[in-house]
Design a protein that fits this description.
Peptide Methionine Sulfoxide Reductase, Chain A; globular; 6-stranded mixed sheet
Amino acid sequence: MKQWWIVVGAAATVAAAPLVAQGTGRETAVFAGGCFWGVDAVFRHVRGVLQVVSGYAGGDAATARYELVSTSTTGHAESVEVSYDPTKVSYAQLLRVFFAVAHDPTQRNRQGPDVGTQYRSALFFTSPDQQHAALAMITTLQREHAYADSIVTEVVPLRRFYAAEAYHQDYLARHPDQPYIVFNDLPKLGALKQKFPELYRP
């Protein structure tokens, strides 16, 4: 259940990744970092991202419903599926945004005011390359002491992604004045623009 309190995240300097994207075509990545409203909004403002879908990952089809996921008993995490053009933005760049802007990777089974396993930090990889890139990023951040506390982000294979209910999609754009959005999610867009001007798009 969403709470209307402000989130104060840990400051971090994320390891640099190449600014020239590699590969061609359309690729997909799945991120979980607390309430999907804010994570969804952040990635929608990243250059090269083609589509963002809020949803659930980590559990079964039968429990991929908001009222069940909210019980913390389904194994699902609120997640976002990001489709992107790898000629314009790389997975490494998306990882940088995920760790530095979209959430606080040091909070276990919660994110700010939201508590429960459905709010855990997780990277659901879809290929060995994504797995290796995610683990390498975490190793680098830990070695450089980017955060005061240890990173608790899970790196696990994606079994399947389930789209959330329609009213959750692009939530920030449709509810910009909602208190939860104002206090918890709009600041993330400001941080994206400030920390990654080369990736930010209005």
